[in-house]
Amino acid sequence: MNFPSELKYTKDHEWVRLEGDEAVIGITEFAQSELGDIVFVDIDTVGDEVNKDDLFGTIEAVKTVSDLFMPAKSTVLEVNEQLDANPELVNNDPYGDGWMVRVKLDNPSDVESLLTADGYKELIGK
User: Fold this and answer.
1) Which of 33, 95, 85, 44 is nearest to 68 (CA)?
2) What pLDDT, in 10s, does the model give residues 19-75?
3) PANTHER family, from UniProt (predicted)?
């Protein structure tokens, strides 16, 4: 499995790519493999301020629905609209075209407290 070292990770299986005071967030390769075939991504929080660990959307696989949690207090700027027509991008390219949201972080340094790739691998036992 692939866990890019430049990303930060959460215990809820989201990844975060810091871009100045903004971040791009998605779910990890491990999470998408556990969920199976993704059929729908529901995120309706654009423009909303979302607190750390609060729900910002859901992701639906063939057999289950999973919640998406915000890794740091942020305002949701953009949702990946490609996922409306192609939710399978999450399965095929979780760290690239399968990203979920772009956010403006209240405090970019909050991301530093998240897990490193090695810490995430340890969490999931890989």
Assistant:
1) 44
2) 999 999 999 999 999 999 999 999 999 999 999 999 999 999 998 999 999 999 999
3) GLYCINE CLEAVAGE SYSTEM H PROTEIN, GLYCINE CLEAVAGE SYSTEM H PROTEIN-RELATED
**Mean pLDDT computed over 73-97:** 97
The sign of the torsion formed by the CA atoms of 104, 106, 107, 111 equals negative
The residue ranges of every structural domain in the chain are 8-105
> Hey, which CATH number is domain 8-105, 3.30.530.20, 2.40.50.100, 2.140.10.10, 3.20.20.140?
2.40.50.100
Q: Evaluate whether 14 touches 68 at the Cβ level (below 8 Å).
A: yes
List residues bridging with 91 in a β-sheet: none
If 0-12 CB within 10 Å is exposed, 13-18 middle and 19+ buried, where does residue 121 land?
middle
